[in-house]
Amino acid sequence: MEYRVTGSGVAVRGLEDFSLNDTLTCGQCFRWRNIGKGTFQGVAFGRPLTISQDSTGSIIFHGISEEEFLSMWREYFDLDFDYGAAKRKISEHSSVLKDACTFAPGIRILRQEPFEALCSFILSQNNNIPRIEGIVRRLCECFGEEIGEGQWSFPNVERLSLLSEDDLAPIRCGFRAKYLLDAARKVARGEIDLAEIDKLPLDEARNALMQIHGVGPKVADCTLLYGLHRLDAFPQDVWIKRAVEVFFPEGFPSVLEPIAGLAQQYLFHYCRKNPDVLVLPEE
DNA sequence: GTCCAGGTTTTTA
DNA sequence: TAAAAACATGGA
């Protein structure tokens, strides 16, 4: 990964397997806004960023220092992982997974803030993506801090843990409010320690997260995959369940277990954008 | 008006 | 134990 510091920020050229648009719109995060011309604005770990990718694939991290790029954004966008090798492995074992990798070869798994990922996917249940984005945005605007023009940090755990369901009414998340509060309170108390959970084997980590009221297997796996970068976590939403039924009646290939979550992301995006592939041919 | 949305909990048989 | 129903909200 090569980069250079320019007058306007940090530029990364020649990076293989990275599509900014596909990475930010494939359903793994809810905080990035497309402001046109391949440019997105968002916030992570309390830092605002404007980032763009041009037609040659070059990425510009606007207005940040080399130090900030190296100490956080490089990791956030997972720039040092060999996605080419991972995709070759994923593609080897199934034609639909090969198609999925080819369809959006530039998807990367972001390393999001663990508590933000937990909250975001609690709010995602039985909900659609545009509405999830709206709820998360209102959550940040109501209870985060304004750190730039129109940009808000994700609320900290302590603040959220002190709120009531009534306080959350303005974000209009419905029945999920009590789930969000239970998560915030358990994390604030240390009853749920996301850093400690990250040290556990996958099953134990899932079970620990599921002690939160409103966290089932799917939300637990999303938290592990997107918040703790556990690439072996395999979130099964309605799309993936259907895809497994149709393409893997014998079960998902076990050789892919260590990177099943990554495979899941290519497959999820592919199915969502091409729903016809999940329709069985008529007799 | 009905249906559905990156599920989970609660109720019912 | 397993299958329904309920859960808030808002766009299609």
Q: Could you tell me the number of beta strands?
A: 8
Q: Which consecutive residue ranges, at least 5 long each, have pLDDT under 50?
A: none
CA-CA gap between termini: 50 Å
* Strand order in the sheet with the most strands: 1-2-6-5-4-3
Helix percent band: 40-55%
- The ordered H/E elements are EEHEEEEHHHHHEEHHHHHHH
Put simply, the count of helices is: 13
Mean pLDDT: 97
Shape: globular
Descriptive notes:
The longest helix has 15 residues. This protein is globular. Strands 1-2-6-5-4-3 form a six-stranded antiparallel sheet, covered by helices on one side. A two-stranded antiparallel sheet has the order 7-8. The chain has 283 residues and is of the alpha+beta class. Strand 5 and strand 6 form a beta hairpin. The protein binds a DNA duplex (13 and 12 nucleotides) through helix 6, helix 8, helix 11 and helix 12.
Kindly list the characteristics that best describe this protein.
283 residues, alpha+beta, six-stranded antiparallel sheet, two-stranded antiparallel sheet, 13 helices, 8 strands, 13% strand, globular, DNA-binding
Q: What's this model, at a glance?
A:
This protein has 283 residues and is an alpha+beta fold. It is 45% helix and 13% strand.
Please describe the topology of this protein.
Layout: E1 2-6, E2 9-13, H1 20-25, E3 33-36, E4 39-44, E5 47-53, E6 59-62, H2 66-76, H3 83-92, H4 95-103, H5 114-123, H6 129-143, E7 146-148, E8 151-152, H7 157-161, H8 176-189, H9 194-197, H10 202-209, H11 217-227, H12 238-247, H13 260-273
Antiparallel strand pairs: 1-2, 2-6, 3-4, 4-5, 5-6, 7-8
Helix pairs in contact: 3-4, 4-13, 5-8, 5-11, 10-11
This protein binds a DNA duplex (13 and 12 nucleotides) through helix 6, helix 8, helix 11 and helix 12.
